[in-house]
Design brief:
alpha+beta; 29% helix; 17% strand; 72 residues; flat
Length: 72
């Protein structure tokens, strides 16, 4: 099993998603949940394509943190 960080961002009228560890692998959706579902499917297809081409599946090296900053 592979695990990849995905970033979901609110855009103009929809949501977009990408994975820093899988350049070029992106998805969109009308809702956050739809973007996440579409990104899951995009990652599955991306990995399948890498395997078919005999290329290695990248290791996940990205992580995310929230940092609290006091209001000024």
């Amino acid at each position: 099993m592979h695990r990849f960080l995905i970033v979901i961002e609110k855009a103009d009228g929809n949501y977009s998603a990408y994975s820093p560890d899988l350049p070029g692998c992106v998805a969109t959706g009308a809702t956050r949940e739809e973007a996440e579902k579409n990104m899951y499917e995009a990652i599955e297809m991306h990995i399948k394509g890498l395997r078919e081409d005999g290329l290695p599946i990248p290791e996940s090296t990205s992580f995310a943190e929230y940092i609290a900053v006091p209001s000024v």
